[in-house]
Design a protein that fits this description.
Elements (H helix, E strand, L loop, with lengths): L5 E7 L2 E5 L4 H8 L7 E9 L2 E8 H8 L8 H5 L7 E3 L7 E3 L11 E4 L5 E7 L8 H8 L27 E10 L1 E5 L5 E7 L6 E10 L26 E8 L1 H12 L6 E6 L6 H14 L6 E5 L9 H10 L1 H14 L4 E7 L2 H13 L8 E7 L5 H12 L2 E8 L4 H10 L17 E5 L12 H4 L1 H13 L9 E6 L2 E6 L2
Parallel strand pairs: 2-3, 5-7, 9-15, 14-15, 14-16, 16-17, 17-18, 18-19, 19-21
Antiparallel strand pairs: 1-6, 1-8, 3-4, 7-8, 9-12, 10-11, 12-13, 20-21
Helix pairs in contact: 8-9, 9-10
């Protein structure tokens, strides 16, 4: 292959954006949570009006900082020049790039920016690779390596006879616990409705969800409205491919096997909010696991939200009903999953059940630091009640992080409906509580209701990554600045 050989490009939209001027010790901590082939995009403000970008894969950058002084900057350790990769403002079908060269890989890659200068994707040369069928590869070297609990499968859940061309999509396996009512869907497939189960017993199982490779980080792709009656394509949409119920014993046996792997010892639990069907909760859990590069098993706790906007009051009653089931689920995970740590991410109304459960668990000394990281996103819970429960709740976790926003229309509507402030508000009603890191997310771009900024925006996802993978405090996290108000200190994303 000659040095001047040019190839068509592959676009990658999933990467960790971080500061090139941070200490090497910080970056080493972040890299521990990444897959070997995952992208790291280093950014640096060389001039007042110019930002340089340096795209590396983890396997390229890690050996170069192994023996570096932990106190030195990443830029100095890598000897980065003043200018990084060339940037683009639009994708080009005719774009071609040379193959990466060791030591200066970023010079043969390009970074796509939006109109605000925010990176959207990385382009690299798509060099020829040997392709063989899955069956032939399995005979010689076994099944493909699982990447973040991802294995390639077909849309119907069967084993493939080939890997999707150019890695069109990955399949993320998630685990679930639910107190929804079981139903049989079209084609005899198992599923769960928006009604409560009759026996008040949790059901367990696994789901396989497709994640398109060519997608923007944080997005939960679905078919366009005019394609709703056609079959969803895993290469184009985040699709729930299969649901497999299991017994409680098998569920925890599978978790123990998963957390026994060297890089997969921790797990996270996602608790969805109001107006979420089981399928949507599964898709969102898989998207979070993939975008966070989470190595351990991702778990969905799906309470029986009716999945309708008009059922808000019904969901309020159900979130109370689900509390004892969630409490038992958390305790069982801590005791029986074999994990080195349990992280919990709750959204919207799901925070009501979580905060109340953690408050109950926190009253017992044996539950101190029961879980590692608790992340409360857009919490739709009365602020006054939140303050009453916060002290006991925070004792159950090593760190509690709360994301709030003044642009969250759903929280504003809830405040109007209930006539009192919600814990997900920012500005005058922002929650400041000892033991809780409050992050004002008002400056990040949001769309429609602005209620899902925690998983739709790269800025917030990157911050969640810092929390989940390294337990890094706000003072050391890229993109945050310290703020002060009459109630005390909090943090905000830089404008």
């Amino acid at each position: 292959m000659s040095e001047t050989s040019m190839f068509p490009v592959r676009w990658s939209s999933t990467f960790l954006l971080t500061d090139a001027d941070q200490p090497v010790a910080n970056l080493k901590t972040l890299l521990t949570g990444l897959r070997t082939n995952q992208w790291v995009l280093l950014s640096q403000n060389r001039f007042a009006s110019h930002k340089s970008f340096y795209p590396f894969r983890k396997r390229e950058i890690q050996p170069r900082i192994t023996d570096a002084d932990p106190r030195s900057t990443v830029s100095d350790a890598l000897d980065l020049p003043q200018l990084g990769s060339e940037t683009l403002n639009e994708r080009s079908r005719d774009l071609q790039l040379a193959a990466p060269e060791h030591g200066v890989e970023y010079l043969n890659r390009k970074v796509l920016l939006d109109q605000n200068g925010t990176p959207l994707a990385i382009a690299e040369a798509k060099t020829p690779v040997e392709t063989r069928s899955y069956a032939a590869r399995a005979e010689s070297v076994g099944p493909p390596e699982r990447e973040s609990y991802a294995a390639v499968v077909e849309a119907d859940g069967s084993s493939p006879d080939r890997e999707p061309e150019d890695g069109e999509y990955r399949v993320v396996r998630i685990y679930y616990g639910t107190d929804r009512k079981e139903v049989t869907q079209k084609g005899g497939r198992p599923g769960y409705s928006g009604e409560r189960c009759d026996d008040e017993q949790l059901k367990f199982g696994t789901c396989d969800v497709s994640i398109p490779r060519d997608r923007r980080m944080g997005t939960l792709e679905s078919p366009r409205w005019w394609h709703v009656f056609t079959k969803r394509k895993p290469a184009k949409s985040v699709v729930l491919l299969s649901t497999l119920p299991t017994s409680k014993g098998d569920f925890f046996a599978q978790l123990q096997a998963a957390t026994a792997k060297p890089d997969s010892k921790a797990l996270f639990v996602f608790i969805h909010g109001f107006n979420v069907q089981f399928e949507d909760g599964a898709r969102r859990t898989a998207q979070l696991a993939y975008d966070l590069g989470f190595q351990g098993p991702p778990i969905l706790y799906s309470w029986p939200s009716a999945g309708r906007l008009k059922a808000y009051m019904a969901d309020e009653a159900t979130i109370e009903w689900t509390k004892p089931h969630l409490k038992q689920f958390i305790q069982d995970l801590v005791l029986h999953a074999g994990a080195s740590g349990v992280h919990i991410i709750a959204h919207s109304m799901g925070n009501r059940a979580l905060v109340r459960v953690l408050n109950e668990l926190g009253t017992l000394a044996c539950n101190q630091h029961l879980v590692k990281q608790v992340i409360l996103t857009a919490p739709d819970i009365d602020t006054g009640e939140f303050y009453q429960l916060a002290a006991a709740m925070t004792s159950t976790a090593q760190r509690v992080t709360l994301y709030a926003s003044s642009k969250d229309l759903a929280i504003e509507i809830s405040k109007t409906f209930h006539k009192y402030p919600r814990a997900g508000e920012a500005e005058a009603n922002i929650v400041i509580q000892q033991g809780i890191d409050t992050i004002d997310s008002s400056t990040v771009d949001t769309s429609l209701l602005g209620h899902s900024y925690y998983c739709d925006e790269r800025t917030v996802l990157s911050d969640v990554f810092y929390v989940i993978t390294g337990g890094i405090p706000p003072s050391m996290r890229h993109g945050l600045e310290r703020r002060q108000c009459h109630l005390g200190q909090y943090w905000a994303f830089k404008a």
